[in-house]
Each structure stands twice: as C-alpha cells, then as structure tokens.
Fold this protein.
Amino acid sequence: TCFAKTNSLIKENDLRLFVDYSTCIKLGQHSDFFKELRSSLQEKTKHYYSIKGDNIIEENIKDTSVYNRLRNISEFNYANLRAAADSIANGNSEAVLLTDGEFIQKGIAEGNETNPYMAGALKKWLKKGGDIYILIEPYEELHKGEKYNKKRFYFIFTDNHLENNIYKNIKEYLKDYDYIKEFHLSANNPVNAIEVKSLDVNPTLSA
C-alpha cells in the first residue's frame, strides 16, 4: 500500500545538519562538489550536529560558522549513525547527513556491513510523507600506503511539498557532477513504495 501524502508536517527553513567526523568527510575538502555544497549548507543550516562516536552534539554556529566547522573535521571512530538517523526521523525539520555510511560498533567485527541499520529511520520519515534523496560520491582514501575506492554519502531528508526545500538548492550543483549517483525515495511514488517495504533486503540502499 502506498502511503498517502498530505500537507507537509515538516518545518521550512529549519535545516539540521548532521556531520560524521570521519576521514571520509575530512577528505571532502578536496572534493569540488563538497566545497560547493558547503557554501549552500552554510547559508541554510540552522542547527549543526557533530557525530563523534556515541556523542551527537549540537554545536554553536554563531561563534564558529558551518563553513569553518566543515573545513576543520578530525576523525572520531565508531560514529553512531543509527542514532543520528533516528534523531532525524523523530524530528520535524529538514536534515542532511554527511557520512561514509560505516556504522562500526566496538566488538562487532563485520561492522554492520549487511545490517540495514537505517531502515527504521528511513521508513519513519517516508511514512510522514517526506522524501529522501541519497547522493553517492566516489573518492579515493589512502590507508597504510594503499589507495582504496570508497564512497561519500549525502542523505537529504526533505519534503518536495516545501517550496524552498534543501534538495532544490543542492540539485543546482548536480548537473555539473555526472559521476555522483542519486537515489530518490518517496512513499508517494508506487515504485518507490515497493523499495520502502523492502529496505531490509535492498542492497542498493545498504550503506
């Protein structure tokens, strides 16, 4: 069954930005797309949250701007991405999550590679009538002298009924970066509604 989409319950102009303090996001400083997006996020963000391990803290963006915070990322291991996604889904504001998608917990060797840890949060947001855009940017990361092909994820939680939603702003940059893959989830679309039901087995959406 497709979820009915009614008037938006999501606040406009109240963007929450969640930043995974990982090497992946730190290396975003070398990405042209990331740098363009950083300017847009500087303008739109009202609440900035750092994800440092289990600590998800709202940072002061009056004393230190979003732009400067995104230029000064240092690595903290074991980012609790599931808690960050749950916080977004439980809220009623647009949100962007910048992450490498790696939800690694202490003592779990596989690092949740086959665990759809965001499925509950994604479903919850979609059931509200919202939209989720997932942008995937390939990049190279150096580890112990070896280069590895990895991916940087931009999760955009919005609602297309909002006239000035954050995705419309970011979309302007995408036309210049054809190497970035994009997925759109919406319970208002019958095709995507099928994906919503099968998030727990859909490898394309697995971080």
Observations:
- Residues 1-6, 193-207 have pLDDT under 50 and may be disordered.
